[in-house]
Amino acid sequence: MDAHGDLGAEIPDDRVDLSELDDAFQLLASGSSGEQVESIAELFAASGTGGGDDEESIHKNAALLLRLAKHYSDRPPEVPIAADGHVIPKQIGRFSILREIGSGGFGVIYLARDEAIGRDVAIKLPRRDLIQDAVRRKQMIHEARTAGSLEHPGIIPIYESGCEGETVYLVSSYCEGPDLATWLGSQTERPSVIEIASFVSRLADAVAYAHGKGVIHRDIKPSNVLLALDVVGPDVVGPSESRSLEATATSKSEPPQSVPLSAYRPRLTDFGLAKFSDEPIVDTRSSLIIGTPLYMAPEQLLPDLGPITFQTDIYSIGVLLVELIDGKPPLSGKTYVEILSFFQDEPRKSIVYSDIPSDLRTIIDKCLSRTPENRYASADALSVDLAAFAAGETISARKMTWITRARVWCRDARRTREACVSTVAAMSALIVWVLYSISLVMGPWFPGDDPWTPAIQALAIIACINLPVLVLAVLGLRRKIWAMKVAMLLLLTGGVFVPLLIIGDFVGLLDPIYGPFPYFKKSFHALVLLISLSEAIYLSIGIYANRWNWKRHRPAKMATAR
């Protein structure tokens, strides 16, 4: 704001006495910087405007303004406030606090600089109103002991813990990306189910490692999954695009929706509620609910259903999987009573799935079983099934009948290309065979008197059926699915229907060629019918495989606004 412009319009004229000038100046100063107020005071002194006409009054007013301006300029600037309502500390031990990067119901997380070794770290401090809470302090120490024993690229490691006065703090690796909940909230389109399955497979692999160390997380949810930019090699996107993606994904602003889920790898954090599998829960009061209800397994809310086991984390992964697919978790209850009522039956029966492949639905159903024994035996088995689904392979959760095996074979993306290749080969062979037959017809040993009529008929069949199907199959190799559909229709009409008419003697095409040997006509056209029908079926399988894989890879609009 210009001190000589808008603020200047607020300057009292010579009818204002000193007390009124003081009050007006206080109002003026509240919306201006110290430098602007000093400038106004100097303007008063230079212009001679004051509370009276004599020089003494002018100097009094200018002195008052300068004194107030100096007082206002020396006022300390506003200090940054953390999420818990307290001032952000500047130093914790040897760590210099840079800024706040996250908060939860218990702790506030800061980005800090480890001056001793020159690296950025994340420091977790308890909320100031909970510093004296002995249970919470014990929980942080427990988190340090639990997460500190885990070393996996999919888990945020705890470097150390310490005390600063009454404050316990944890020092962990700093992950530049957002958490999954923040990323999901910024999206207008869901990622494809292939991206989701591949991402959650890596998360399940990290959980499997923790389970191998005897650690049950008990609070797996999107906000506890941080996103680290995955290594994107030049072979995938090129060096310039890789650098651009890295700069975008690690920017300090809200994560843009232009960064796909496939560009990140999950890193599990917040082991504050974790327990070792052989560690009993000391407080077993029915009022104690440990975890986040929307992501909790039935046995976490209803202890009579069984103890907390590794399958408890598998249930939470299933909930997270549903949220990534549908944009919201399967539970919609806002109270514990509503959530508990959800578990009266199998949770999976109450879920309304979006249009997702049946194999992925099978995986989710197995994760969300009300009975822990019916879930995956291990997080590793879940990770393997998700990876198999992403690769288009058979999942272990589905009982493999011959029908299922046939369906899996038909869905393989390779069927699309194979169908086109086989059609090209078949049509090329038929064209060569017909042309060879025409050369025999035009030879001196042809028994009939008119070799031109059957020759022209044969050439017409090549021009109207075989050659177009050949060209369309070549286009199909270039992913022109419409060409495969047209080729299939041509084969059904010209390669199946017409030979049926010829075999049944409803049409006399090419009769002069066969003359006294009609069984040659029937056998040859039966062969043409068989080849054409086989290729039409193969093309339909290729079209189906393309459609099924396209649905798996396509991004879809978010079903529900977050």
UniProtKB/TrEMBL annotation:
<feature type="binding site">
    <location>
        <position position="124"/>
    </location>
    <ligand>
        <name>ATP</name>
    </ligand>
</feature>
<dbReference type="InterPro" id="IPR017441">
    <property type="entry name" value="Protein_kinase_ATP_BS"/>
</dbReference>
<feature type="compositionally biased region" description="Polar residues">
    <location>
        <begin position="241"/>
        <end position="260"/>
    </location>
</feature>
<keyword id="KW-0472">Membrane</keyword>
<dbReference type="GO" id="GO:0004674">
    <property type="term" value="F:protein serine/threonine kinase activity"/>
</dbReference>
<feature type="domain" description="Protein kinase">
    <location>
        <begin position="95"/>
        <end position="389"/>
    </location>
</feature>
<keyword id="KW-0812">Transmembrane</keyword>
<keyword id="KW-0067">ATP-binding</keyword>
<keyword id="KW-0418">Kinase</keyword>
<dbReference type="InterPro" id="IPR011009">
    <property type="entry name" value="Kinase-like_dom_sf"/>
</dbReference>
<keyword id="KW-0808">Transferase</keyword>
<feature type="transmembrane region" description="Helical">
    <location>
        <begin position="524"/>
        <end position="545"/>
    </location>
</feature>
<feature type="transmembrane region" description="Helical">
    <location>
        <begin position="419"/>
        <end position="443"/>
    </location>
</feature>
<dbReference type="GO" id="GO:0005524">
    <property type="term" value="F:ATP binding"/>
</dbReference>
<protein>
    <submittedName>
        <fullName>Serine/threonine-protein kinase PrkC</fullName>
        <ecNumber>2.7.11.1</ecNumber>
    </submittedName>
</protein>
<dbReference type="InterPro" id="IPR008271">
    <property type="entry name" value="Ser/Thr_kinase_AS"/>
</dbReference>
<keyword id="KW-0547">Nucleotide-binding</keyword>
<feature type="region of interest" description="Disordered">
    <location>
        <begin position="241"/>
        <end position="262"/>
    </location>
</feature>
<dbReference type="Pfam" id="PF00069">
    <property type="entry name" value="Pkinase"/>
</dbReference>
<feature type="transmembrane region" description="Helical">
    <location>
        <begin position="482"/>
        <end position="504"/>
    </location>
</feature>
<keyword id="KW-1133">Transmembrane helix</keyword>
<feature type="transmembrane region" description="Helical">
    <location>
        <begin position="455"/>
        <end position="475"/>
    </location>
</feature>
<dbReference type="InterPro" id="IPR000719">
    <property type="entry name" value="Prot_kinase_dom"/>
</dbReference>
